[in-house]
Amino acid sequence: MASAATQKTSWADDVDELEQPNKGEDFVDENGIRTTIEYTLNDEGKKITRKIKRVLQKEIVDHTVAEHKSWTKFGQEKGSKPGPDRATTTVGENVWLKLSAGNKSSEPEPSAEQTMKNNLVRAGAGKVVCRLCKGDHFTAKCPYKDSLPGLEGTDTPPFGADDTGTPAEPAAAAPATGGKYVPPSMRGARGPGESMGRPGGSRDDLPTLRVTNISEDTQENDLRDLFSRFGRVARVYVGRDRETGAGKGFAFVSFESKADAQLAMEKVHGKGYDNLILSVQWSQPREQR
Amino acid sequence: MRPILLQGHERSLTQIKFNREGDLLFSASKDHVINVWFTDNGERLGTYDGHNGTVWTIDVDSQSRFLVSGSADNLMKLWSVQTGKCLFTWEFNTAVKRVAFSETDDQVVCVTEQRMGFQGAIWIFDINREGDGTQQSKEPASMFHPVGSKATLCAFAHTPGMILTGHESGKVALFDAKTGEEVHTNERAHLDVVTDLQLASDRSYFITSSKDKTARLHDTRTLLVLKTYTTETPLNSAAIAPGKPYVLLGGGQEAMSVTTTSLRQGKFETRFWHKLFEEEIGRVKGHFGPINTIAVSPKGDCYASGGEDGFVRVHHFDESYFKARPYGDLEIED
């Protein structure tokens, strides 16, 4: 027992010894490259290793050039030591000068979308294929978004059928060209609010779910992504505080088909999302609220 | 290539110039300071302090012994390159917008602004290279007022007796130094003010840049327009690259791209054009403001650009620049 007590040392002390090999190194290898290794501690007490490789470059220059190098510094540089001063001289980022015939005129920089696609391909995510028309663009950017069948082969006919959409438009066009301005609400055979030719009906006709107990940070897009696996989501509204814009904990998700909404409700109600258990119900019709 | 950023100025650059060996770069700025740097590593050698106004222009002689500068404080100063001492000062009635040494380093031409009743003028001074350089004559060897539009730029032409001028109207002219008469003129050389004028190494042709979005190559003797380079932005500077059939142009930015997201690296570019085929072949980004001045080292191995942002960026060309053959293997004798 006694011997054990005298030998007992705190393991923390041992660790300290190994902590800092403050000895730096400085050696020249066979290629003439001088490597300097320094060890320092940063603010958080983490060990930082710095390896600096220096290659000595020898250049043969004109006599006059060599002479210039021997001049003493003057003006604001008076008294400075030899070598560039970091306050005035830094090395910039690499720039490429690609010389090719008829360069910039034909090919402007790749658009943001193009660069994103390139990045994906490089990351090995495969080519970009649109789910609707199989073109090489993102589904969200599909030019046929409105007219092609819904996602994942759900072939529910667009709610309300297309005919309500189309005749309303020519009716609106007529008074517009007739001369006198007609306010949108009086424009004709169309529901309240403007029409953008949305397939199906407008806000009030869509089967809508009320989702409660969502987190403050949940955005429209998050819910759209969450519910899109059940069918096409026509509209998402996230209730927000007027001033801060933070979510108030509830949202309304409208589907294009009631069946999709029904399925979504069954599947999502009671499920966890962002550390909260979601509650999904049919939304109450407007008049009763 | 990695450009070296020289941050020696607090305000925009007005002119930069390489010395004949290409190892020293002089920079002048609106902050009244002239800096001199080593081109190989960007190390600052020193500053020439003494002007009380924007230093509009500088020139160095072929021996890197004297530096001459023109400033908005109505002075033209002669400096010793090595020590930074001001050797002599000439006073004028208006700002000095451009100075240039002659090929033989024994004369200096400068152009003073037209302002407040004083006519614009071109002055030629003899430089006494004997001794320490402080013994200079206050009186010009000759002086004349160029007729017509205000002269903004000047340089010695192929012979010391002739002065090339660039004007506010876009005119380019050739004057006889002694008599002041206009020997040749090209009124329509440019449609807007000529912003820069740089001669080729043998002085047989020169390039001008203008706010009319073009740069042009002219023959020195006849002022014939040899080539035209049309861009979409007003140009502030143009330079001829020795050793390669390229010209460098620098200026503002296309109006459309002004609101693009700003990156750490600026979006203002130096454009490389093929001198003979009049086509753009490359661009180098980096400046955070319009490029005001471009210079290429007489050795053709590096170039520098100075911008409105107060930075000078020195670029040493890498292998790919020298090996590039943008138009095939046609070798052009310079």
Automatic annotation (TrEMBL), chain A:
One of its GO terms (cellular component) is eukaryotic 48S preinitiation complex. Gene3D superfamilies: 3.30.70.330. Residues 1-10 have a biased composition (Polar residues). It comes from the Eukaryota. Keywords: Cytoplasm, Initiation factor, Protein biosynthesis, RNA-binding. Residues 1-29, 153-184 are annotated as: Disordered. One of its GO terms (molecular function) is RNA binding. One of its GO terms (biological process) is formation of cytoplasmic translation initiation complex. The keyword Cytoplasm applies. Residues 207-285 form the RRM domain. It holds the Pfam family RRM_1. Residues 161-179 have a biased composition (Low complexity). It is found in: Cytoplasm. Component of the eukaryotic translation initiation factor 3 (eIF-3) complex. RNA-binding component of the eukaryotic translation initiation factor 3 (eIF-3) complex, which is involved in protein synthesis of a specialized repertoire of mRNAs and, together with other initiation factors, stimulates binding of mRNA and methionyl-tRNAi to the 40S ribosome. The eIF-3 complex specifically targets and initiates translation of a subset of mRNAs involved in cell proliferation. This subunit can bind 18S rRNA. Belongs to the eIF-3 subunit G family. HAMAP family: eIF3g (MF_03006). This is Eukaryotic translation initiation factor 3 subunit G.
TrEMBL record, chain B:
Keywords: Cytoplasm, Initiation factor, Protein biosynthesis, Repeat, WD repeat. GO terms for biological process: formation of cytoplasmic translation initiation complex. The keyword Cytoplasm applies. One of its GO terms (molecular function) is translation initiation factor activity. Pfam families: EIF3I. It is found in: Cytoplasm. It comes from the Eukaryota. WD repeats lie at residues 6-47, 48-89, 284-314. GO terms for cellular component: eukaryotic 43S preinitiation complex; eukaryotic 48S preinitiation complex; eukaryotic translation initiation factor 3 complex, eIF3m. Its main location: cytoplasm. Component of the eukaryotic translation initiation factor 3 (eIF-3) complex, which is involved in protein synthesis of a specialized repertoire of mRNAs and, together with other initiation factors, stimulates binding of mRNA and methionyl-tRNAi to the 40S ribosome. The eIF-3 complex specifically targets and initiates translation of a subset of mRNAs involved in cell proliferation. Component of the eukaryotic translation initiation factor 3 (eIF-3) complex. Belongs to the eIF-3 subunit I family. This is Eukaryotic translation initiation factor 3 subunit I. It comes from Obba rivulosa.
